[in-house]
Amino acid sequence: MPKILVVTSGKGGVGKTTSTAALGAALAQSNQKVAVVDFDVGLRNLDLVMGAERRVVYDLINVAQGDAKLHQALIRDKRLENLYLLPASQTRDKDALTEEGVRRVIDELRERFDWIVCDSPAGIERGATLAMRFADVAVVVANPEVSSVRDSDRIIGLLDAKTEIAEKGGRMEKHLLLTRYDAGRAARGEMLNVDDVLEILSIPLLGIIPESEDVLRASNVGTPVTIHSGTSAPSRAYADAARRLCGAQVPMDIPSDKKGLLVRLFGRRAA
Amino acid sequence: MTRPSTHIRFRGRSFPVLALEPDAPIAGWFERLDACLEHSPAFFSRKAIVIDVSRLGLDRDSVSEFVEQLSGRGVRIMGLTGVDPGWACDDLPPILTNGRAIASGEGPAEGVEGAATLTLDERAAFDEIAQTLGGGQAGGTEPADPAARSAAPLVVETAVRSGQSIFHPDGDVIVIGSVSSGADVIAGGSVHVYGTVRGRVMAGAYGDSRARIFCRRLEAELLAVGGFYMTADEIRDEVRGRAVHARLEDETIEITKLD
């Protein structure tokens, strides 16, 4: 049974696109057939993060409007043969997407893939609501800071109200992915800690991605971090999150580096 | 030098009124009305009545005639609804649009709709008239006395998320989850939250000063009881983060720890 997964957050810049690429690649690495779909029409980025920007011919809008066939628009990843990208259009805006068009594309993708990972644009408007519209699973991406957490809370409310599954009386499966987590700063009280965020959002934790330069480096060379540096801490955290999405029980690793502990000790001594 | 003020004051307001909904055949309806009036002749006197003729399907001239017949029976018509707004003219009552029916309560306290604005005798007469003229629901008036607002409580079994608003004008609201920052819970009665309140909670939204707010943990942005409010800045540190209840005392919100 194929799964439609939406990666969403409300707030921009928290790591939706990076997480879409990393989770999509990690799922594909476990031999599942994956399509990642960019819903950020007008501000497309997923093609860059996936390193496919020079191969875009047709896009989501073309397929949704019936101007191109799905197989013409899908771009196969060069590194993983199970991974495909359906890019967004950069020249159109989000009003070009219609619910019926998106439904047709999703239905067609459902026949060909095990996972359809939808990268939502920021905000709570049309693009974001259409990205989540037909999903069965949501990954809510949040950074450990108050504005991101409140926006995620808002998005969770929309997931429970504006999606097809919710309107039919079903329950959307929701997971929290905490990104850009800096154990040292959390210990010093400069960031919300994991418990605070979980208490506010009260949805199950899918994973904690530590703040790392590896993520930025991978994005800049157009490779999902799970392919780029498979042994780095963020890459392992994403791979574990992908396994949890598939139902595996993987123990949660809450990042707490020794440096953070030392800083805390020094901080205490100074006081 | 003072000039006489040229200002007159206008304000949009809404009032509860009785709406009469005559049904066809019109002759039969008048017969029943006359029978009722014989029983309690003063029932319609000194009351603002709106006539909803949407069930009759009359043309312009017959509406005019119908209004005349009603006026002759001592019914003071303040407005007409259910007709084409284009018919407005000097010999018809003002035409009203966008009227909303007031939800009828199920609890025994509500009894007859409009009970609170009527005396006991009138209530009995109204009951009878409503039944005789019947043909479905009689138009109701909104109880003006906040004490009369006692419908069943609204139970919210999930968290109230940022951007969501729970509004229950007729009774208590019970939230089993938390109320997030940026969410509103507004109740005519009291509000009970079994999680943390981080958003805004308003109890006694129609002025019921006996309403209270209970929560397991107080981190609220704003609390209001009976129209008086308190922002997060005014909440004392010793009750913040605690299980509390809030009530109105001498027009100030008093917050007390529960444990």
Automatic annotation (TrEMBL), chain A:
CDD domains: MinD. Keywords: ATP-binding, Cell cycle, Cell division, Nucleotide-binding, Septation. GO terms for biological process: division septum assembly; negative regulation of cell division. Gene3D superfamilies: P-loop containing nucleotide triphosphate hydrolases (3.40.50.300). Pfam families: CbiA (PF01656). Signal peptide: none annotated. ATP binds at residues 11-18. One of its GO terms (cellular component) is cytosol. ATPase required for the correct placement of the division site. Cell division inhibitors MinC and MinD act in concert to form an inhibitor capable of blocking formation of the polar Z ring septums. Rapidly oscillates between the poles of the cell to destabilize FtsZ filaments that have formed before they mature into polar Z rings. PANTHER family: SEPTUM SITE-DETERMINING PROTEIN MIND HOMOLOG, CHLOROPLASTIC, SEPTUM SITE-DETERMINING PROTEIN MIND HOMOLOG, CHLOROPLASTIC-RELATED. Interacts with MinC and FtsZ. Belongs to the ParA family. MinD subfamily. This is Septum site-determining protein MinD. It comes from Methylosinus sporium.
